[in-house]
């Protein structure tokens, strides 16, 4: 074997090695870099849904409207709700199947469909949630127990208004 031949053989081999490395690079590019979070993970932490209480005018951007917020694992609300992730809690890691802290701010009134918050001065719950203006109209058709409960609530919210 001459020196030349050995040299050529080496060359051919290193060419092959280069091709292999290219292939590996392409594969590596397809995987997300470990330090970067996938984009939708960042996006879902931004509140985009507008919640505006029609009674007290509370205005807030929330993360979710519906019955089963994806971040409240296993949670199912009785009514479609405006839900905000707790801004003061870090989300649990993905692999941990634990519900995140969240706040259900309000729902839509069963009668007029306007959003109302959970404040006692804004909404009343009797089988469904009603805004207080609708509730005070509806209450005549309710059982006495529910009526007196709402009357108490209405009286309390009037007192609150006066003291403000
Ligand atoms: Zn309100
Ligand atoms: Zn209403």
What would you note in describing this structure?
The chain is of the alpha+beta class and 164 residues long. It contains four helices and eight strands; from the N terminus they run ααββββββββαα. The mean pLDDT is 80. Residues 53, 55-56, 58, 116-117, 119, 122 line the site of one zinc ion. One zinc ion binds at residues 53, 55-56, 58, 116-117, 119, 122. Pfam families: C6_DPF. Belongs to the CDPF1 family. It comes from Drosophila grimshawi.
Can you tag this structure with a few keywords?
single chain; 164 residues; alpha+beta; four-stranded antiparallel beta sheet; 37% helix; elongated
Uncertain stretches: none
> Could you say how many structural domains there are in total?
2
- SS element count, helices: 4
The separation of the N and C termini measures 102 Å
Largest beta-sheet characterization: 4 strands, antiparallel
Cα-based radius of gyration, to the nearest Å: 30 Å
Strand content: 15-25%
Q: Quick check: average pLDDT? A: 80
Number of strands: 8
- Following the backbone from N to C, one meets helices and strands in this order, namely HHEEEEEEEEHH
What coarse outline follows from CA principal-axis ratios? Answer: elongated
Bound molecules: zinc ion
| Helical residue percent band | 25-40%
Category from helices, strands and their pairing: alpha+beta
Cross-sheet strand order for the largest sheet = 3-4-5-6
Domain Cysteine-rich DPF motif: 51-150
Family: Belongs to the CDPF1 family.
Protein name: Cysteine-rich DPF motif domain-containing protein 1
């Amino acid at each position: 074997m001459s020196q030349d031949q050995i040299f050529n053989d080496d060359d051919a081999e290193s060419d092959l090695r280069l091709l292999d490395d290219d292939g590996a690079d392409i594969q590596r590019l397809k995987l997300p870099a470990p330090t970067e979070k996938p984009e939708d993970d960042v996006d879902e932490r931004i509140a985009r849904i507008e919640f505006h209480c029609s009674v007290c005018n509370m205005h807030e951007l929330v993360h979710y409207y519906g019955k089963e917020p994806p971040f409240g694992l296993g949670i199912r609300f009785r009514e479609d709700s405006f839900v905000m992730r707790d801004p003061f809690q870090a989300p649990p890691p993905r692999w941990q199947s634990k519900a995140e802290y969240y706040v259900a701010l309000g729902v839509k009134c069963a009668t007029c469909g306007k959003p109302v918050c959970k404040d006692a001065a804004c909404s009343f719950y009797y089988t469904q949630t009603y805004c207080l203006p609708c509730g005070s109209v509806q209450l005549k058709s309710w059982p006495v127990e529910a009526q007196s409960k709402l009357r108490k609530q209405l009286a309390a919210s009037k007192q609150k208004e006066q003291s403000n």
